[in-house]
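Hi C.,

You asked whether I'd gotten around to modeling the 437-residue construct. I have! Everything is below, sequence then structure, no commentary in between.
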Amino acid sequence: MKARIVIIGGGVMGISIAAQLARQTDALKEPIMLLERGSVGGGTSGRSSTILRQFNESRCIASMARDSLRFYSRFEDKIGRSIGFLRTGVLTLAKSQDPADIEQLEELVAMQATMGIDITRVSAREIRNLIPGAEVEAGTVGAWECSAGCVDSTRTLEAFSCLARNKGAILRPGTTVEKILVKAGRVCGVRTAEGDIQCEDVVVAAGPWTRGLLLGLGLDYPLNITRTEHLHVTNSSLKEAEAHSDPEFGMHGPESSGATSWISRDILDAALADEAGEGTKLGSCSEASVLHPTLIDPQLGFYARCDPLHARARVGRCSAGQATPVADPDHLDERIDDEFRDWVRATLSRRLPAYEDAEEVGAEVRMCTETKDSRALIGPTPEIKGLYLVSGFSGCGFKLAPSVGEGVAQMLLGQPVSAFEPEYFAPARFSALRVPG
């Protein structure tokens, strides 16, 4: 069996790359094949928080997130398939009330505003207007992205898979790659249980399984696998709001097609203009107490993403330092610690008292792959020609996937890379340790 390019990994990165490549190649002359050990989208991507925010210390990543957000926001209109896109807005608090942390946030807001990102610096009073009932100290500031939001991971992965297939890509779930084949220092194929597949290039986008595949080639790139826990919580207010919504279209019925939030720029402007100190109320009391923007809270170390499509909120840690190392991705401990449950309840209600009596309606564990400098590996390896890496996104792959897919396709097809800065992510910045063998 032959292919032009083989992609290993059927998560959001692999599928995005496959769709972009298939769009620009002849399916008969230059087959694009994606191999996934399980079900397509059934790995870590299927458990993603899918927070589509642009705020970042890196100008490069912020621009990729901006372009990816535009892609997601237009997907349903252009492709005709729902991905559950919602403009919930994303509020990121400064790390502390320390003047240095506030100054850093303000500089980043100013920098990203020059990039065409709709972002605003908000004060403690304005934060309370955005999330009525939130407990924030005087002097707290945040970065508010009114156009940011989220997608439904399952719908998005299914839609991306259909797009890739419709463009001619071959998707083969249930196919485990046992070995990447190399001849004279160049990739020549992959070995599976069903037999060898010859190809010119191999893209390894296998998430937590990437390092193991590279070790089989005698290469050891600094990819660390960590385990993170997440709880889904709800309460009577959220259930009541969900009962009045259309499950197909989210909180506002078919007029919004799931693409607009209950928070609008007009509401924010009214909140910012309010001089009485009372604050503009965002919707009804039940909406205001639970249906809130996605909150990234580095001060208390958590994030909370409201998910009206499923009548729940997803809560997890936002500090990578709290994650637990994973020795073997094939043996992931999926038990949720009671200590984490207690931490979520105490921390969430401390910032958002409306969740004090929230009930747990689900929990999950996911793996993240990280590099030691917190920048993903994207691009060709200097050791083996035709071998490309796409890994190490620290759990933030969804917000960058469209840009990564476009840029990697440009690389593989010999085009100038305009979707991101190749040098920023180049695997060549690390010297892969040679593994004896």
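If it helps when you're writing up: Confidence is low (pLDDT under 50) at residues 244-290.

Thanks,
B.
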